[in-house]
Amino acid sequence: MEEFFATNNQQQILNRIFSLNLGLLCILDIDGWFKKVNISWEKTFGYTTAELLDTNIIDYTHPDDRDATAFVFAKLLHTSHRLTFSNRFRSKDGSYRYIDWEFNRHDNYAYVAGTDITHTKLSAVGLNEVRKHLDKNQFHNDLEHLCPTRQKILVVDDSPLNTKIMETALIEDYEVVISHNGIEALAICNSNDPPDLILLDIVMPEIDGYEICRRLNRGTKTKDIPVIFLTSLTESTDIEFGLTLGAIDYITKPFSIPIIKAKIKNHLALKYYQDTLKINTDVDQLTQIANRRRFDDTMIREVKKAKRSGTILSILMLDIDHFKFYNDAYGHLEGDSCLKKVATALSTTLKRPQDLAARWGGEEFACLLPNTNTNGAQNVAESLREAIQNLSIPHKSSPVSNVVTVSIGVVSSNPMDENSFDNLLRHADEALYQAKKTGRNRIALWHQEIEAIEPY
Question: Which residues are catalytic?
Fold first, then answer.
């Protein structure tokens, strides 16, 4: 072994390890910037090494997971040498994959291994069975018939003995996650893979159970996770206080395992049925890209970010030219197929993780381009227009072209005028109207005297 290290320096050894197909391996600095990746990243996500280096992992994270991922780098990684969490990472084609991450920090760098769990995650949802069940309105308590995987319970208690008792009692029926402090528990709850139910001790150091429950109840992502308090406090005032904070039940120490199991089963059954009603609420069911609700929520966040950082936010509004004629000529099934193809072209043509393509309604789409000026937005718009035209979808009834085309309105905020954000959508729509009015299959940039630009 000494001879091996004498003839191979650390960089050579590292390069050889990273050349192996060992799953997702990378080195990040403590703020999340890529410094080295192995070949599995390109196979999994489509990005080359050059495309990833000196970009930030947070920028590739699903918008709903960014706050939790940012919290990992801002707080947890600075205080923990080793941690695990899950999130959704954007591929080059615009789709997202579920990844389990394991971080090992040394000095100012994190050595990271990732496992793609997308297939397992999506298989576990069992959407077809859920939808059949809901369509027939056959609500009953046979939870295992519907749920193909075990539900997750987070046990939060600073006593290793108590957590071991709970884990032993529940592990046969549920996935059990243990946490011995409030900070770690909150991070787990804010991750992409939160628990279905929390068993929470009240008396703990640093952050007690009451404060954890209060923070969970304030969080948009965590307020619906049911919390059951584990406590030796039996006064009615203590119980009442916990329930007013948002807990759904109390279990007193010493524990009665049969009672614990019965309460957990009932609360998880209710939680499961509630969750089935929320599936894909931010995805357009036909095109499988973001829907109007997702666009509106994302725009609110990006406007705040642009105002705070003084950057430019651009919006594109797109409309398929003479789509009614298309439906009349080819039928609504072909019309749906056309919408799907256009949506796919939009999401794959947008290159940056922070860009968002959404179905606005009918044959209209919208794109959100953070930190993008007018020239950049115009270039993106032209790329989208060309990509859709190059699909070569026949459109024999179009007065514009013999293939499907789009008109696009472009608008950018003025960082010197915060009020400009208030009218972005209206101005984008006005620019789109101008593009259609002046001949279609073209781009119009919004300003006081709107200018339409014909295809290049």
Answer: 363
